[in-house]
Please model this.
Amino acid sequence: MNIEEFLKNDAEKDLLRFSTAGSVDDGKSTLIGRLLHDSKQIYEDQLASVKKASGKINADLEIDFALVTDGLKAEREQGITIDVAYRYFSTPKRKFIIADTPGHEQYTRNMATGASTANLAIVLIDARNGVLTQSKRHAFISSLLGIPHMVVAINKMDIVNYSEEVFERIKKEFSEFASKLNIRDLHFIPMSALNGDNVVEPSPGNMPWYKGQCLMELLENIYIGSDRNLIDLRFPVQYVIRPTQDFRGYSGRVASGIIRKGDEIMVMPSMKKNRVKSIITFDGELNEAVVGESVTIALEKEVDISRGDMIVHPNNLPSCENHFEAMVVWMSEVPLDPAKSYHIKHTSNMTSISIDEIRYKIDVNTMHRLNTDSLTLNEIGRVVFSSRKKIFFDPYSKNKAVGSFIIIDKISNNTIAAGMILDRLSADKLPKKISRPAEASNYKNYRMVSTEEKSARYSQSPVTLWLTGLVSSGKREIAWKIEKELFDKGHSAIVMDASTIRSGICRELEFTQSDRTENIRRAAEISRMLNDNGLVSVCAFVSPDESVRKQLSSIIGQERFIEIYVKASLESCKKRNPAIYEKALSGEIENFTGVSAPYDEPVSPALTLNMNSMTVDEAAASVIDYMTKNSFIRN
Amino acid sequence: MSGKYNLNHLKQLESESIHIMREVASEFERPVMLYSIGKDSSVMLRLAEKAFYPGKIPFPLMHVDTGFKFKEMYEFRDTYIKEIGAELIIYRNEKSISEKMNPYDYGTQKCCSFLKTQALVDSIRAMKFDVAFGGARRDEEKSRAKERIYSFRDESGQWDPKNQRPELWDIYNGKINKGQSIRVFPLSNWTELDVWNYIYLEKIPIVPLYFAKEREMVVRDGQLIPCDGPVPLGKNEKTTKIMSRFRTLGCYPCTGAIKSTAATVPDIIQEMMTVTISERSTRIIDHDAEGSMEDKKKEGYF
Model:
């Protein structure tokens, strides 16, 4: 082989990124030191065979372990955050990048960082100690971050007399633990990094019972091509190139899938169809570009596309939602504050998020789920978010590149968390937080007319009568009648229902679960304002979700919120409005409460109006009666 | 090992670097690319051309000039930049240059601090750049192994190793407050061999000083000091013609050459693979003090 061939071969190598985790004493440094040193040796041997290689080859170099360990020691002395260190080596077959991270619990965030780009994780186990918490934690984080391949390196076999029994025992114990995790491809190698057994060279002398590959052989040959997603085309537009008036190119890196010249594509969020005219690079046009390639796309039809948009195939769309849940690794000294809003960066999109619910956190040592209202540094939890803009995503397990995001603090601008989107529940089923933080309305003290004075004028206590029930159960009619009765007695009330607020204040909202909840939230906020001004508010909304109704009292105020259940059978509702129910039953209207979407009956309403036996007037009268009895209205 | 849809590692590195550059160009108002005329800069510049093709590079290049660079570097800079049609800013600390700052009278550390580090920090502040690309690689030196791709600097251009942002996947956090800036290293994951091989395969022009030739040298403390300008000679010193080349390029008074006959890129790679001195060891500035690179970086050096 001459040097030109060597260079061509070198360029054609592929790249394997792997992560390691561990502390100074568990043999990690020795292992990395040996990989770096021995691989150089292989290289030099190869080069020695290249003609003209006349340079002196240092074949008898001592392994410079210090090179690896020094970094860590220095950090410890200087009190610098122990960090991820990237190291590089290659063999004639492959190029490698090691993301080397410390292993203790306080470095969970560093482990997650290192794992985020890795194809493979090496989990170290000291043969003398067996499966310790630290190895379990590393395995858990690796699986959480979706590393497809895992090698469990059972090290220091020399100290346990190269015992097959010890190896098998540890292998069994780890396998049992690993069955709870999502690890696609698991390998076990008995080794002694110190003596070089099964690291770069096999060890037939010391461990003749081990028939598998040594570590280097495995690293060099493990197949990673199928780990990439070649199916779902996702092309987040990063940058628009407009060198002249008549050329517009959309630059980006193919996040997954394959894009071909001539493909019919769809642009999100506009959902407009178009066709790929050409795939442009500095080195010439391409017929296709695959996951990982940075290219520029020109389309046939002139359209308005900007950064943050996504080009996909029309028959294979990602989710497009502003309500989603994710596993989150918290990376900041400042804990998560569920009342705050944060920035997120997801593909080439930046938007704002708020937290709906922290479902649980995971004890990384026991894998137990714990209840919590916050996440602190290095904690991992499952969190439900709402974003201001819709994002286009796949679940992380299916597509890392469009299933991952980072959370950025709005004040410090620091990256404070990493998230991996889940798809176990559809957006419709996710809990939504609509109650607001405790502060607000401190202007009260400056007002010259108080709520009490205003309500005294109307001889009433400002309450919100919240009428919930099926579509066409009679809510609105009852509300109007209540308004009339109160008006006639000299009180003052205002009626709100879905059609009035949807035609104005909520006109941009759609009928997704998330938008319906937002619709209710706005009604509740208006109701609160009305009550603050001494007025009675009568709200007639289907509001089918018990968890949402529960939160209304925290917006409006517990003592002011009167939940009234307008109870009517589905049959009687159908009779009142046959047209709409016909559409619901035929499927023309989707997600119709009582037909194709659930209605949660109120658990403890203040009042139940049974419309199967009552008229509207009777129902309104019983509400007025209730108000009088509770002194909400006075003569 | 490359299957039909597998990208080889150079292609992956290229693609990653382009992604980084486009991300920066999208999210920042005033980027600048630091151009040192060296081989890494040449690769970075080619990647920038690729990232924005068929458009032009949407930000200027900046050479922080000490006045002590090799003549061949200036010649190369002026012709090559003109050829590719990029915009170039040349920034010099004119005050220190007029005060005759030099490494012989003031020491290399002080000279570097005024003409390079200070000049760099000043230029970024004066021209209100909010991000500067640099060609540094993580494999160059121990203290760089932990460097982020987006390296955050405070208002005075300083690096705080305790306060680095986590960097996951390929999602980069470009949020900064007014007055702050970041340094971006798109070649972070490239090794020296990758850079050379890319230069070879892409036929990227580099300064001829990298190739071996007979050059006037003074031998001092075992190092070959080039005589590209007036080098003060010691009592028993004289210049000799030596077949040599430079592994890295900096200022001529502070850049050592090595004896070599490598006259082509493949020759250089072959030499590099068989000689085990680390790349920066011929830069005299690194010998000043223990951990000097880390200290310089804290001050604002790349």
Notes: The CA atoms of residues 70 and 598 of chain A lie 62 Å apart. Chain A touches chain B through 85 residues (CB under 8 Å).
